[in-house]
Amino acid sequence: MGETILEMKDIDKSFPGVHALDHVSLEVKRGEVHALMGENGAGKSTLMKVLTGIYKKDEGTITYKGREVEFHNTREAQDNGVVIVHQELNMVGDLTVAQNIFIGREPRKGFRIDDKKMIVDSRALFDRLHIDIDPTEKMSELTVGKQQMCEIAKAISHNAELIIFDEPSAALTEKEIEDLFTIIRDLRSQNLGIIYISHRMDEIKVITDRVTVMRDGGYVGTLVTEECTKEDIINMMVGRVIYEKPKEKSLVPADAPVVLKVEHLNAGKMVHDVSFELRKGEILGFSGLMGAGRTETARAIFGADPKQSGDIYINGEKVEINSPEDAVKHGIGYLSEDRRRFGIVVGKSITENSTMAALSEYMSGLFINKNKEKQVSEKYIKELDTKTPSTDQLVVNLSGGNQQKVVIAKWLVRNSDILIFDEPTRGIDVGAKNEIYKLMNRLAAEGKSIIMISSEMTEILRMSDRIIVMCEGRKTGEINIEEATQELIMDKATRQMEA
Amino acid sequence: MDNFKQNPLVKKVGFNRVVLCGVLILMYIFFSILVPVITGSGFAGMSHIMGALNYAYFLGFLSLGVTFVIATGGIDFSIGPVMFCCGLISGYCLMTYNMPLPLCLLISVLIGTLFGLWNGYLVAYWTVPPFIVSMASMNMAKGIASVFTKTQSVSWPRSTDANGWFRNLVKAGGVPTGLFCFLGAAVICAIILNNTKFGRYIICLGSNKEAVRLSGVDTKKWEMCAYLMCGILVGIATIFFVGTYTTVQPGYGDTYNNEAIAGCVMGGTSMAGGLASISGTVIGVLIISLLQEGILALKLTKDVQLIITGIIVIVAVYADVMARRRKN
Fold it and tell me: Is residue A248 a part of any domain in this protein?
């Protein structure tokens, strides 16, 4: 480990309703892989966005290579050698690998783009990283793992001195992760500073030198990886909060009727021959890696995307669902992973959002009965404990957790019996998360049936009565909660890739 | 300023609309002073007010119509030419085929409705961008009208003619009946926009179409209905246009697009969709109409008005964009 390359001190950042970073500090040295850990919503990504200029900090100082800096955008950060390899891949599928790597700064030959130089330079980059990718191939033809490698190559091509990996392994297979680690070790030996964000405890022990832990937007501490145990890190991550214990046994009575049955569902490129049953009062967890086809399955069932084949039965009766309208009529409600895009109309009030799916029941003749609307809106604000000054509050002003409650209210107002929660706690802070969990448990106890798609293993183990695992668009496992372990689920979630 | 914004009356009417009313009054005072100085003839008084109002009626119906479309986040550049198409075809039916007047007025509304349906169908079900659809419709409207009338202009009966009674819709004796019709229509539109399922859905889908669709709403149908509503109002606008101006020439009408859209966005309806105000549109239309009357009174040409209207559209949309950016 060499000299300090980056020091972030007392960084503070607030968003309306959320204190996202509370005086957080982070120090990274040259030739070090520094892990940044914490639960979802702990503030890791926010901290990195402050560093790379996506967000403006409210307070604190950033010292990079010995002088105080404040980058105003990612471009400026890049030019100074600070690059981020995102969790989501930012590639243009229709361009070639080389074109993607040099996008926005294409080498020129007179007025024309010098494609040859681009390809030669890309090859040189890949050689340096010891990866085998053809720069002339179209980006969309590559596997997710290879695309990730290209992201890294692109990052390094900016003469990077500090590279941030934001959960790079989330979508990778074991083999790909090993390749990734080889590259990271290689970069470390070239005296670069590396920040590695991940949830996976095993990886942290293998690849990192030091660990900084964050919790609820605050700084908890920094440890040398070799000197600490997994348990130390977990304790720091969860703090005084009792760690979410897995559910021990299914709470669904043995004779609960099947409310939803899906048979041989095929939809698009991501859903192949998926069949399953959902019983009354059950929380059915859908686990799998990013891109396993879980959201696509849910959207196909809900009629949001077209399906090629497959039958859906509700309460034993075969139904035709060709649009969300049909699905809602049959009592299905879908809570998307991306609330702002698919769940709520942010510029409208809580009331308007709450009655969106059931407006017909709030009409007096031709006109909307606004009193009745307001009453039901108030009722659910109280019942779900939504924090808001009034029913007229615009949803845009609510925090993530409260926005989620508005979406839940929408489906409860519609009296939907089957609820599909897609990543129900994504982007929600830890306190509100527990509330959402309690709410889901209560709904299940009241006889609603829930499909819960989640990428968080602890969430799956804590909430589900039964777990379905998907991989590459297929169902690869069905596990009762009594037998479920993290390892078993992971095994099934990666099964097909290795075969 | 903040105190003024917090005043309960201002809050109820809406800050934006209070400012617009102020603009309207200032503009009237401005012309009342400037016109006598430059041309030597007076501006204050009923005759110019009536002139401005005559312009406001048909423009108002156009603007009300396009408010529904803009609320969905769409746009309709065909309204002016479609109005001319309605006026030409129904006028041709009246003058050349001697069809009864009520039938001709009905034909006018029907043609507007059909254009609205056509635009709406293409936008909602074929997902052709509204800009393209309405540009194409604009030219089709011009073309259809010219083909139908063999490129002749059409003159509607004068108030002294046998069929001239319909002009009472615009002005009966000295009473501006057109104003009552326009305001009545505005009230109905406001109720439709704020208190019906249709209004609720189109405003919400203008803000986030996918979220509304995933709530089980048939967004395509409602989006089409917004254009349909616009078409009906354009058809009605025609009646007030021919009731005021008598002669309709083929190949024109596009200048009214800009003015109708200017009236609408000035009033606080957002080009990005999801936000619409009928009362704002009404004041916006009155401002545009007064502007046109004032410019004519200054003996300037229509061209000056085109320039000013263009600037108004850009400023109003820019203000909306800035307001949105501040909110985020």
Answer: no
